[in-house]
Amino acid sequence: MAEAATGFLEQLKSCIVWSWTYLWTVWFFIVLFLVYILRVPLKINDNLSTVSMFLNTLTPKFYVALTGTSSLISGLILIFEWWYFRKYGTSFIEQVSVSHLRPLLGGVDNNSSNNSNSSNGDSDSNRQSVSECKVWRNPLNLFRGAEYNRYTWVTGREPLTYYDMNLSAQDHQTFFTCDSDHLRPADAIMQKAWRERNPQARISAAHEALEINEIRSRVEVPLIASSTIWEIKLLPKCATAYILLAEEEATTIAEAEKLFKQALKAGDGCYRRSQQLQHHGSQYEAQHRRDTNVLVYIKRRLAMCARRLGRTREAVKMMRDLMKEFPLLSMFNIHENLLEALLELQAYADVQAVLAKYDDISLPKSATICYTAALLKARAVSDKFSPEAASRRGLSTAEMNAVEAIHRAVEFNPHVPKYLLEMKSLILPPEHILKRGDSEAIAYAFFHLAHWKRVEGALNLLHSFRMIPYPLEKGHLFYPYPICTETADRELLPSFHEVSVYPKKELPFFILFTAGLCSFTAMLALLTHQFPELMGVFAKAFLSTLFAPLNFVMEKVESVLPSSLWHQLTRI
Protein backbone atom coordinates (compact mmCIF):
# COMPACT_ATOMS: atom_id res chain seq x y z
CA MET A 1 0.00 0.00 0.00
CA ALA A 2 2.81 2.36 0.89
CA GLU A 3 4.52 1.77 -2.45
CA ALA A 4 1.26 2.34 -4.33
CA ALA A 5 0.63 5.59 -2.44
CA THR A 6 4.18 6.76 -3.12
CA GLY A 7 3.79 5.99 -6.81
CA PHE A 8 0.48 7.85 -6.98
CA LEU A 9 2.01 10.90 -5.29
CA GLU A 10 4.95 10.87 -7.72
CA GLN A 11 2.56 10.73 -10.69
CA LEU A 12 0.44 13.54 -9.24
CA LYS A 13 3.56 15.63 -8.67
CA SER A 14 4.78 15.05 -12.21
CA CYS A 15 1.36 16.02 -13.59
CA ILE A 16 1.37 19.26 -11.58
CA VAL A 17 4.90 20.09 -12.74
CA TRP A 18 3.92 19.39 -16.34
CA SER A 19 0.81 21.56 -16.06
CA TRP A 20 2.78 24.49 -14.63
CA THR A 21 5.35 24.09 -17.40
CA TYR A 22 2.75 24.84 -20.07
CA LEU A 23 0.46 27.06 -17.98
CA TRP A 24 2.13 30.21 -19.26
CA THR A 25 0.59 29.62 -22.69
CA VAL A 26 -2.87 29.61 -21.11
CA TRP A 27 -2.10 32.86 -19.32
CA PHE A 28 -0.88 34.36 -22.58
CA PHE A 29 -4.12 33.61 -24.40
CA ILE A 30 -6.17 34.87 -21.44
CA VAL A 31 -4.29 38.19 -21.51
CA LEU A 32 -4.87 38.52 -25.26
CA PHE A 33 -8.56 37.82 -24.79
CA LEU A 34 -8.86 40.42 -22.02
CA VAL A 35 -7.04 43.03 -24.10
CA TYR A 36 -9.45 42.41 -26.94
CA ILE A 37 -12.51 42.59 -24.69
CA LEU A 38 -11.25 45.77 -23.03
CA ARG A 39 -10.22 47.50 -26.21
CA VAL A 40 -13.12 49.96 -26.05
CA PRO A 41 -12.70 51.08 -22.39
CA LEU A 42 -8.94 51.23 -22.80
CA LYS A 43 -9.34 53.22 -26.04
CA ILE A 44 -6.81 50.99 -27.79
CA ASN A 45 -8.08 51.92 -31.25
CA ASP A 46 -7.83 55.64 -30.49
CA ASN A 47 -4.32 55.25 -29.11
CA LEU A 48 -3.21 53.27 -32.18
CA SER A 49 -4.63 55.93 -34.49
CA THR A 50 -2.83 58.62 -32.47
CA VAL A 51 0.45 56.72 -32.75
CA SER A 52 -0.03 56.25 -36.48
CA MET A 53 -0.69 59.99 -36.94
CA PHE A 54 2.46 60.78 -34.96
CA LEU A 55 4.54 58.42 -37.08
CA ASN A 56 3.16 59.96 -40.28
CA THR A 57 4.32 63.39 -39.18
CA LEU A 58 7.91 62.24 -38.67
CA THR A 59 10.43 63.28 -41.29
CA PRO A 60 12.86 60.88 -43.04
CA LYS A 61 15.71 62.37 -40.97
CA PHE A 62 14.23 60.73 -37.88
CA TYR A 63 14.29 57.32 -39.51
CA VAL A 64 17.83 57.87 -40.71
CA ALA A 65 18.89 58.74 -37.16
CA LEU A 66 16.96 55.77 -35.76
CA THR A 67 18.45 53.19 -38.13
CA GLY A 68 21.90 54.75 -37.83
CA THR A 69 21.80 54.58 -34.05
CA SER A 70 20.59 50.98 -34.17
CA SER A 71 23.43 50.11 -36.54
CA LEU A 72 25.99 51.77 -34.24
CA ILE A 73 24.74 49.98 -31.12
CA SER A 74 24.58 46.60 -32.82
CA GLY A 75 28.07 47.19 -34.22
CA LEU A 76 29.44 47.89 -30.75
CA ILE A 77 27.76 44.74 -29.44
CA LEU A 78 29.25 42.79 -32.36
CA ILE A 79 32.77 44.05 -31.59
CA PHE A 80 32.43 43.18 -27.91
CA GLU A 81 30.99 39.71 -28.67
CA TRP A 82 33.81 38.99 -31.13
CA TRP A 83 36.49 40.06 -28.63
CA TYR A 84 34.91 37.99 -25.86
CA PHE A 85 34.64 34.96 -28.14
CA ARG A 86 38.29 35.24 -29.25
CA LYS A 87 39.49 35.53 -25.65
CA TYR A 88 37.23 33.09 -23.81
CA GLY A 89 35.85 30.88 -26.59
CA THR A 90 32.17 31.52 -25.85
CA SER A 91 29.47 34.14 -26.38
CA PHE A 92 28.97 36.66 -23.58
CA ILE A 93 25.22 36.98 -24.19
CA GLU A 94 24.83 33.21 -24.32
CA GLN A 95 26.86 32.75 -21.14
CA VAL A 96 24.84 35.38 -19.25
CA SER A 97 21.55 33.91 -20.43
CA VAL A 98 22.54 30.40 -19.41
CA SER A 99 24.09 31.40 -16.08
CA HIS A 100 21.61 34.01 -14.84
CA LEU A 101 18.41 34.08 -16.89
CA ARG A 102 17.89 30.34 -17.20
CA PRO A 103 17.45 29.73 -13.44
CA LEU A 104 15.01 32.66 -13.26
CA LEU A 105 12.93 31.17 -16.07
CA GLY A 106 12.77 27.80 -14.36
CA GLY A 107 15.55 26.06 -16.31
CA VAL A 108 17.18 23.02 -14.76
CA ASP A 109 20.88 22.36 -14.92
CA ASN A 110 21.51 19.06 -16.65
CA ASN A 111 24.47 18.29 -14.46
CA SER A 112 22.53 18.76 -11.22
CA SER A 113 19.56 16.77 -12.48
CA ASN A 114 21.67 13.78 -13.33
CA ASN A 115 24.02 13.80 -10.33
CA SER A 116 22.23 11.06 -8.45
CA ASN A 117 22.09 8.72 -11.44
CA SER A 118 25.53 9.26 -12.95
CA SER A 119 27.85 9.98 -10.04
CA ASN A 120 30.16 7.09 -10.90
CA GLY A 121 30.32 8.01 -14.57
CA ASP A 122 30.97 11.66 -13.76
CA SER A 123 33.79 10.81 -11.38
CA ASP A 124 35.38 8.56 -14.00
CA SER A 125 35.11 11.25 -16.66
CA ASN A 126 36.53 13.85 -14.26
CA ARG A 127 39.50 11.65 -13.49
CA GLN A 128 40.03 11.10 -17.20
CA SER A 129 39.80 14.85 -17.86
CA VAL A 130 42.41 15.57 -15.19
CA SER A 131 44.79 12.95 -16.58
CA GLU A 132 44.28 14.15 -20.15
CA CYS A 133 44.94 17.80 -19.22
CA LYS A 134 48.01 17.15 -17.11
CA VAL A 135 50.97 19.36 -18.00
CA TRP A 136 54.21 17.47 -18.72
CA ARG A 137 57.83 18.54 -18.82
CA ASN A 138 58.95 18.93 -22.43
CA PRO A 139 61.69 16.31 -22.95
CA LEU A 140 63.16 18.36 -25.82
CA ASN A 141 63.05 21.74 -24.08
CA LEU A 142 65.62 24.31 -25.13
CA PHE A 143 68.27 26.07 -23.05
CA ARG A 144 67.17 29.37 -21.57
CA GLY A 145 70.45 31.23 -21.86
CA ALA A 146 71.73 29.80 -25.13
CA GLU A 147 68.42 29.60 -27.04
CA TYR A 148 65.40 31.26 -25.42
CA ASN A 149 67.28 34.40 -24.36
CA ARG A 150 68.94 34.75 -27.74
CA TYR A 151 65.49 34.75 -29.33
CA THR A 152 64.47 37.54 -26.95
CA TRP A 153 67.58 39.56 -27.78
CA VAL A 154 66.89 39.31 -31.52
CA THR A 155 63.11 39.73 -31.65
CA GLY A 156 62.31 41.52 -28.39
CA ARG A 157 59.64 38.93 -27.63
CA GLU A 158 59.41 36.65 -24.63
CA PRO A 159 59.09 33.02 -25.84
CA LEU A 160 58.18 31.71 -22.37
CA THR A 161 55.12 32.61 -20.33
CA TYR A 162 55.16 33.24 -16.60
CA TYR A 163 53.00 30.16 -16.06
CA ASP A 164 55.50 27.98 -17.95
CA MET A 165 58.50 29.34 -16.03
CA ASN A 166 56.65 28.95 -12.74
CA LEU A 167 56.07 25.27 -13.53
CA SER A 168 59.79 24.91 -14.26
CA ALA A 169 60.62 26.48 -10.89
CA GLN A 170 58.36 23.95 -9.20
CA ASP A 171 60.08 21.12 -11.10
CA HIS A 172 63.49 22.34 -10.02
CA GLN A 173 62.43 22.49 -6.39
CA THR A 174 61.02 18.97 -6.65
CA PHE A 175 64.00 17.38 -8.39
CA PHE A 176 66.97 19.38 -7.05
CA THR A 177 66.15 19.96 -3.37
CA CYS A 178 65.52 17.85 -0.28
CA ASP A 179 64.79 18.37 3.40
CA SER A 180 68.44 18.16 4.45
CA ASP A 181 69.64 21.03 2.23
CA HIS A 182 69.75 23.42 5.18
CA LEU A 183 72.67 21.37 6.60
CA ARG A 184 74.90 22.37 3.66
CA PRO A 185 75.38 26.12 3.04
CA ALA A 186 75.63 25.85 -0.75
CA ASP A 187 72.50 23.71 -1.07
CA ALA A 188 70.63 26.07 1.26
CA ILE A 189 71.49 28.96 -1.05
CA MET A 190 70.38 26.99 -4.12
CA GLN A 191 67.13 26.05 -2.40
CA LYS A 192 66.32 29.75 -2.23
CA ALA A 193 67.67 30.37 -5.75
CA TRP A 194 65.20 27.95 -7.36
CA ARG A 195 62.35 29.97 -5.82
CA GLU A 196 63.71 33.30 -7.01
CA ARG A 197 61.77 34.91 -9.87
CA ASN A 198 64.47 37.31 -11.03
CA PRO A 199 66.94 35.54 -13.39
CA GLN A 200 69.87 37.74 -12.34
CA ALA A 201 69.20 36.99 -8.69
CA ARG A 202 69.23 33.24 -9.44
CA ILE A 203 72.53 33.52 -11.30
CA SER A 204 74.07 35.55 -8.48
CA ALA A 205 72.93 32.96 -5.94
CA ALA A 206 74.52 30.19 -8.01
CA HIS A 207 77.85 32.03 -8.08
CA GLU A 208 77.61 32.58 -4.33
CA ALA A 209 77.03 28.86 -3.79
CA LEU A 210 80.14 28.04 -5.83
CA GLU A 211 82.24 30.61 -3.95
CA ILE A 212 81.35 28.97 -0.66
CA ASN A 213 82.76 25.70 -1.94
CA GLU A 214 86.02 27.38 -2.91
CA ILE A 215 86.73 28.29 0.72
CA ARG A 216 88.67 25.78 2.75
CA SER A 217 86.91 24.86 5.95
CA ARG A 218 88.03 22.70 8.85
CA VAL A 219 85.80 19.65 9.07
CA GLU A 220 86.47 17.76 12.26
CA VAL A 221 86.36 14.18 10.99
CA PRO A 222 88.71 11.67 12.68
CA LEU A 223 90.62 9.50 10.23
CA ILE A 224 90.58 6.60 12.70
CA ALA A 225 88.06 6.00 15.42
CA SER A 226 89.19 7.30 18.84
CA SER A 227 92.08 9.06 17.16
CA THR A 228 93.35 12.60 17.64
CA ILE A 229 94.36 12.96 13.97
CA TRP A 230 91.96 15.24 12.10
CA GLU A 231 91.40 15.72 8.35
CA ILE A 232 91.05 19.00 6.49
CA LYS A 233 88.48 18.49 3.68
CA LEU A 234 87.19 20.64 0.86
CA LEU A 235 83.44 21.02 0.75
CA PRO A 236 81.99 19.16 -2.25
CA LYS A 237 81.16 21.18 -5.34
CA CYS A 238 77.51 22.24 -5.74
CA ALA A 239 76.24 20.48 -8.85
CA THR A 240 72.90 22.30 -8.92
CA ALA A 241 74.70 25.67 -9.06
CA TYR A 242 76.49 24.55 -12.23
CA ILE A 243 73.15 23.37 -13.63
CA LEU A 244 71.56 26.77 -13.12
CA LEU A 245 74.52 28.58 -14.70
CA ALA A 246 74.53 26.19 -17.67
CA GLU A 247 70.81 26.66 -18.22
CA GLU A 248 70.51 30.41 -17.75
CA GLU A 249 73.90 32.17 -17.92
CA ALA A 250 75.65 30.32 -20.75
CA THR A 251 75.01 32.11 -24.05
CA THR A 252 76.12 29.23 -26.31
CA ILE A 253 75.64 25.49 -26.28
CA ALA A 254 79.41 25.00 -26.02
CA GLU A 255 79.54 27.08 -22.81
CA ALA A 256 76.57 25.18 -21.42
CA GLU A 257 78.31 21.87 -22.16
CA LYS A 258 81.43 22.94 -20.25
CA LEU A 259 79.37 23.88 -17.22
CA PHE A 260 77.41 20.64 -17.39
CA LYS A 261 80.67 18.67 -17.45
CA GLN A 262 81.72 20.42 -14.26
CA ALA A 263 78.29 19.68 -12.81
CA LEU A 264 78.77 16.02 -13.78
CA LYS A 265 81.96 15.75 -11.74
CA ALA A 266 80.31 17.25 -8.68
CA GLY A 267 77.03 15.39 -9.14
CA ASP A 268 78.68 12.02 -9.66
CA GLY A 269 80.67 12.39 -6.44
CA CYS A 270 77.57 13.36 -4.45
CA TYR A 271 75.63 10.46 -5.98
CA ARG A 272 78.28 7.89 -4.99
CA ARG A 273 78.49 9.20 -1.43
CA SER A 274 74.72 9.23 -0.94
CA GLN A 275 74.42 5.78 -2.53
CA GLN A 276 76.50 4.30 0.28
CA LEU A 277 74.37 6.00 2.97
CA GLN A 278 70.88 5.68 1.48
CA HIS A 279 69.85 2.83 3.82
CA HIS A 280 70.85 4.66 7.00
CA GLY A 281 67.56 6.52 7.33
CA SER A 282 64.80 8.41 5.52
CA GLN A 283 66.88 11.59 5.41
CA TYR A 284 69.72 9.84 3.56
CA GLU A 285 67.22 8.13 1.26
CA ALA A 286 65.70 11.48 0.29
CA GLN A 287 69.17 12.90 -0.31
CA HIS A 288 70.08 9.95 -2.53
CA ARG A 289 66.86 10.41 -4.50
CA ARG A 290 67.73 14.06 -5.02
CA ASP A 291 71.29 13.21 -6.12
CA THR A 292 69.95 10.62 -8.55
CA ASN A 293 67.63 13.17 -10.17
CA VAL A 294 70.49 15.66 -10.44
CA LEU A 295 72.81 13.11 -12.05
CA VAL A 296 70.20 11.91 -14.57
CA TYR A 297 69.32 15.49 -15.49
CA ILE A 298 72.98 16.42 -16.05
CA LYS A 299 73.70 13.40 -18.25
CA ARG A 300 70.55 13.96 -20.28
CA ARG A 301 71.39 17.61 -20.89
CA LEU A 302 74.95 16.69 -21.84
CA ALA A 303 73.53 14.29 -24.43
CA MET A 304 71.30 17.09 -25.73
CA CYS A 305 74.33 19.39 -25.96
CA ALA A 306 76.15 16.79 -28.03
CA ARG A 307 73.08 16.49 -30.27
CA ARG A 308 72.93 20.27 -30.73
CA LEU A 309 76.64 20.45 -31.57
CA GLY A 310 76.33 17.78 -34.28
CA ARG A 311 77.82 14.86 -32.35
CA THR A 312 74.70 12.77 -32.83
CA ARG A 313 76.28 9.32 -32.46
CA GLU A 314 77.87 10.37 -29.20
CA ALA A 315 74.50 11.68 -28.02
CA VAL A 316 72.81 8.37 -28.90
CA LYS A 317 75.42 6.43 -26.93
CA MET A 318 75.01 8.69 -23.91
CA MET A 319 71.23 8.31 -23.99
CA ARG A 320 71.40 4.53 -24.31
CA ASP A 321 73.85 4.30 -21.40
CA LEU A 322 71.64 6.55 -19.31
CA MET A 323 68.54 4.45 -20.00
CA LYS A 324 70.43 1.29 -19.07
CA GLU A 325 71.83 2.79 -15.87
CA PHE A 326 68.49 4.22 -14.69
CA PRO A 327 65.73 2.17 -16.37
CA LEU A 328 63.05 3.14 -13.84
CA LEU A 329 63.29 6.92 -14.29
CA SER A 330 60.73 7.25 -17.06
CA MET A 331 59.57 10.69 -15.91
CA PHE A 332 62.31 12.35 -17.98
CA ASN A 333 61.09 10.59 -21.19
CA ILE A 334 64.64 10.10 -22.40
CA HIS A 335 63.40 7.69 -25.10
CA GLU A 336 61.87 10.66 -26.96
CA ASN A 337 65.30 12.32 -27.12
CA LEU A 338 66.71 9.01 -28.34
CA LEU A 339 64.05 8.68 -31.06
CA GLU A 340 64.83 12.14 -32.42
CA ALA A 341 68.58 11.48 -32.50
CA LEU A 342 68.11 8.11 -34.21
CA LEU A 343 65.89 9.71 -36.85
CA GLU A 344 68.66 12.22 -37.52
CA LEU A 345 71.02 9.30 -38.12
CA GLN A 346 68.34 7.66 -40.31
CA ALA A 347 68.72 4.52 -38.18
CA TYR A 348 65.13 3.45 -38.83
CA ALA A 349 65.65 -0.10 -37.59
CA ASP A 350 66.83 1.21 -34.23
CA VAL A 351 63.87 3.60 -34.16
CA GLN A 352 61.52 0.67 -34.69
CA ALA A 353 63.19 -1.22 -31.86
CA VAL A 354 62.67 1.71 -29.47
CA LEU A 355 59.03 2.03 -30.57
CA ALA A 356 58.48 -1.69 -29.99
CA LYS A 357 59.43 -1.13 -26.36
CA TYR A 358 57.62 2.12 -25.64
CA ASP A 359 54.64 2.08 -28.02
CA ASP A 360 52.75 -0.21 -25.69
CA ILE A 361 49.06 -0.05 -24.81
CA SER A 362 49.85 0.11 -21.09
CA LEU A 363 52.22 3.10 -21.44
CA PRO A 364 51.16 6.74 -21.91
CA LYS A 365 51.27 7.90 -25.49
CA SER A 366 52.75 11.07 -26.92
CA ALA A 367 52.88 12.82 -30.27
CA THR A 368 56.49 11.66 -30.68
CA ILE A 369 55.48 8.01 -30.28
CA CYS A 370 52.40 8.15 -32.52
CA TYR A 371 53.82 10.29 -35.33
CA THR A 372 57.17 8.48 -35.39
CA ALA A 373 55.31 5.17 -35.80
CA ALA A 374 53.27 6.78 -38.60
CA LEU A 375 56.44 8.07 -40.26
CA LEU A 376 57.99 4.61 -40.34
CA LYS A 377 54.81 3.10 -41.82
CA ALA A 378 54.56 5.91 -44.36
CA ARG A 379 58.22 5.51 -45.32
CA ALA A 380 57.53 2.02 -46.63
CA VAL A 381 54.92 3.21 -49.16
CA SER A 382 55.17 6.99 -49.51
CA ASP A 383 57.60 7.01 -52.48
CA LYS A 384 55.14 5.01 -54.61
CA PHE A 385 51.85 6.15 -53.12
CA SER A 386 49.37 7.98 -55.34
CA PRO A 387 45.82 8.85 -54.26
CA GLU A 388 44.51 8.45 -57.81
CA ALA A 389 46.09 5.02 -58.25
CA ALA A 390 44.95 3.92 -54.81
CA SER A 391 41.35 4.94 -55.60
CA ARG A 392 41.42 2.81 -58.75
CA ARG A 393 43.06 -0.35 -57.46
CA GLY A 394 42.43 -0.04 -53.74
CA LEU A 395 44.91 0.08 -50.89
CA SER A 396 47.51 -2.60 -50.39
CA THR A 397 48.27 -4.04 -46.95
CA ALA A 398 51.27 -1.78 -46.42
CA GLU A 399 49.34 1.28 -47.57
CA MET A 400 46.45 0.37 -45.29
CA ASN A 401 48.86 0.08 -42.35
CA ALA A 402 50.34 3.48 -43.17
CA VAL A 403 46.91 5.10 -43.46
CA GLU A 404 45.80 3.57 -40.16
CA ALA A 405 49.00 4.74 -38.44
CA ILE A 406 48.50 8.31 -39.68
CA HIS A 407 44.83 8.12 -38.70
CA ARG A 408 45.90 7.06 -35.20
CA ALA A 409 48.48 9.85 -34.93
CA VAL A 410 46.10 12.54 -36.15
CA GLU A 411 43.45 11.37 -33.73
CA PHE A 412 45.90 11.57 -30.84
CA ASN A 413 47.05 15.11 -31.69
CA PRO A 414 45.16 16.83 -34.53
CA HIS A 415 47.29 20.00 -34.37
CA VAL A 416 50.53 18.46 -35.66
CA PRO A 417 49.65 18.29 -39.42
CA LYS A 418 49.23 22.07 -39.57
CA TYR A 419 52.88 22.50 -38.58
CA LEU A 420 54.31 19.57 -40.53
CA LEU A 421 52.55 20.75 -43.69
CA GLU A 422 53.73 24.33 -42.92
CA MET A 423 50.17 25.62 -42.93
CA LYS A 424 50.98 27.43 -39.70
CA SER A 425 54.21 29.09 -38.56
CA LEU A 426 56.30 27.51 -35.82
CA ILE A 427 57.52 29.19 -32.65
CA LEU A 428 60.01 28.07 -30.02
CA PRO A 429 58.55 25.18 -28.03
CA PRO A 430 57.65 25.83 -24.38
CA GLU A 431 59.35 24.15 -21.43
CA HIS A 432 56.10 22.31 -20.62
CA ILE A 433 53.59 20.72 -22.94
CA LEU A 434 50.04 19.50 -22.79
CA LYS A 435 49.62 16.12 -24.40
CA ARG A 436 47.24 16.21 -27.37
CA GLY A 437 47.44 20.01 -27.27
CA ASP A 438 48.90 22.71 -29.48
CA SER A 439 51.95 23.02 -27.23
CA GLU A 440 52.86 19.36 -27.80
CA ALA A 441 52.34 19.78 -31.54
CA ILE A 442 54.77 22.73 -31.60
CA ALA A 443 57.36 20.82 -29.56
CA TYR A 444 57.13 17.80 -31.87
CA ALA A 445 57.13 19.65 -35.19
CA PHE A 446 59.99 21.94 -34.12
CA PHE A 447 62.41 19.00 -34.05
CA HIS A 448 60.77 16.44 -36.35
CA LEU A 449 59.75 18.52 -39.37
CA ALA A 450 63.16 17.88 -40.97
CA HIS A 451 62.74 14.12 -40.50
CA TRP A 452 59.37 14.14 -42.31
CA LYS A 453 60.83 16.20 -45.15
CA ARG A 454 63.70 13.73 -45.48
CA VAL A 455 61.31 10.84 -46.20
CA GLU A 456 60.15 11.31 -49.77
CA GLY A 457 56.37 11.43 -50.13
CA ALA A 458 55.60 11.23 -46.41
CA LEU A 459 54.20 14.76 -46.26
CA ASN A 460 52.11 14.10 -49.39
CA LEU A 461 50.56 11.12 -47.65
CA LEU A 462 49.93 13.23 -44.56
CA HIS A 463 48.43 15.98 -46.72
CA SER A 464 45.41 13.79 -47.44
CA PHE A 465 44.59 13.96 -43.72
CA ARG A 466 44.65 17.76 -43.49
CA MET A 467 40.83 17.91 -43.16
CA ILE A 468 40.87 15.55 -40.20
CA PRO A 469 40.06 15.67 -37.22
CA TYR A 470 36.35 16.44 -37.61
CA PRO A 471 35.42 12.72 -37.95
CA LEU A 472 37.60 11.86 -34.95
CA GLU A 473 35.82 13.73 -32.16
CA LYS A 474 34.18 10.57 -30.79
CA GLY A 475 37.51 8.93 -30.04
CA HIS A 476 37.82 5.62 -31.87
CA LEU A 477 41.38 4.77 -30.79
CA PHE A 478 41.83 7.09 -27.81
CA TYR A 479 39.61 8.81 -25.32
CA PRO A 480 37.46 11.60 -26.79
CA TYR A 481 39.46 14.74 -27.28
CA PRO A 482 39.50 16.74 -24.02
CA ILE A 483 37.90 20.18 -23.99
CA CYS A 484 40.41 21.69 -21.54
CA THR A 485 43.39 21.85 -23.91
CA GLU A 486 42.68 25.31 -25.28
CA THR A 487 42.73 26.97 -21.86
CA ALA A 488 45.94 25.21 -20.78
CA ASP A 489 47.68 25.93 -24.09
CA ARG A 490 46.86 29.64 -23.81
CA GLU A 491 48.67 29.62 -20.47
CA LEU A 492 51.69 27.75 -21.83
CA LEU A 493 52.15 29.52 -25.17
CA PRO A 494 53.10 33.20 -25.65
CA SER A 495 50.45 35.76 -26.46
CA PHE A 496 51.77 36.50 -29.96
CA HIS A 497 51.05 32.91 -31.03
CA GLU A 498 47.58 32.06 -32.31
CA VAL A 499 46.59 28.93 -30.43
CA SER A 500 45.30 26.09 -32.57
CA VAL A 501 41.83 25.08 -31.38
CA TYR A 502 40.26 21.66 -31.88
CA PRO A 503 37.53 20.98 -32.58
CA LYS A 504 37.20 24.27 -34.41
CA LYS A 505 34.49 26.27 -32.72
CA GLU A 506 31.71 27.67 -34.85
CA LEU A 507 30.75 31.28 -34.38
CA PRO A 508 28.04 31.68 -31.74
CA PHE A 509 24.52 32.58 -32.86
CA PHE A 510 24.58 36.00 -31.22
CA ILE A 511 27.69 37.07 -33.17
CA LEU A 512 26.00 36.15 -36.44
CA PHE A 513 22.78 37.80 -35.28
CA THR A 514 24.42 41.08 -34.27
CA ALA A 515 26.47 41.09 -37.49
CA GLY A 516 23.30 40.67 -39.57
CA LEU A 517 21.44 43.28 -37.51
CA CYS A 518 24.28 45.78 -37.83
CA SER A 519 24.52 45.29 -41.60
CA PHE A 520 20.74 45.42 -42.11
CA THR A 521 20.21 48.59 -40.08
CA ALA A 522 23.18 50.30 -41.70
CA MET A 523 21.75 49.49 -45.13
CA LEU A 524 18.34 50.84 -44.08
CA ALA A 525 19.93 54.06 -42.83
CA LEU A 526 21.78 54.55 -46.10
CA LEU A 527 18.75 53.84 -48.28
CA THR A 528 16.48 56.08 -46.17
CA HIS A 529 18.98 58.92 -46.45
CA GLN A 530 19.32 58.56 -50.23
CA PHE A 531 15.71 57.67 -51.17
CA PRO A 532 13.38 58.95 -48.41
CA GLU A 533 10.11 58.92 -50.41
CA LEU A 534 10.69 55.49 -51.92
CA MET A 535 11.64 54.01 -48.54
CA GLY A 536 8.50 55.55 -47.00
CA VAL A 537 6.32 53.82 -49.55
CA PHE A 538 8.20 50.58 -49.02
CA ALA A 539 7.85 50.82 -45.22
CA LYS A 540 4.09 51.40 -45.45
CA ALA A 541 3.69 48.47 -47.83
CA PHE A 542 5.79 46.26 -45.58
CA LEU A 543 3.83 47.18 -42.44
CA SER A 544 0.48 46.70 -44.14
CA THR A 545 1.59 43.28 -45.36
CA LEU A 546 2.93 42.40 -41.89
CA PHE A 547 -0.31 43.31 -40.10
CA ALA A 548 -2.62 41.83 -42.76
CA PRO A 549 -2.89 38.40 -41.01
CA LEU A 550 -3.63 40.13 -37.67
CA ASN A 551 -6.36 42.28 -39.24
CA PHE A 552 -7.84 39.20 -40.85
CA VAL A 553 -7.96 37.40 -37.50
CA MET A 554 -9.50 40.45 -35.79
CA GLU A 555 -12.26 40.66 -38.40
CA LYS A 556 -13.10 36.99 -37.97
CA VAL A 557 -13.20 37.37 -34.17
CA GLU A 558 -15.47 40.40 -34.40
CA SER A 559 -17.81 38.52 -36.71
CA VAL A 560 -18.10 35.71 -34.21
CA LEU A 561 -18.31 37.72 -30.96
CA PRO A 562 -21.05 40.34 -30.52
CA SER A 563 -19.86 43.94 -30.35
CA SER A 564 -21.97 44.58 -27.23
CA LEU A 565 -20.28 41.84 -25.20
CA TRP A 566 -18.62 44.38 -22.89
CA HIS A 567 -21.96 46.05 -22.11
CA GLN A 568 -23.50 42.66 -21.39
CA LEU A 569 -20.65 41.80 -19.03
CA THR A 570 -21.07 45.11 -17.16
CA ARG A 571 -24.80 44.48 -16.75
CA ILE A 572 -24.10 41.05 -15.29
UniProtKB/TrEMBL annotation:
InterPro entries: ST7. Keywords: Membrane, Transmembrane, Transmembrane helix. Signal peptide: none annotated. It is a multi-pass membrane protein. The chain crosses the membrane at residues 21-42, 62-85. One of its GO terms (cellular component) is membrane. Pfam families: ST7. It is found in: Membrane. Belongs to the ST7 family. This is Suppressor of tumorigenicity 7 protein isoform 4. It comes from Daubentonia madagascariensis.
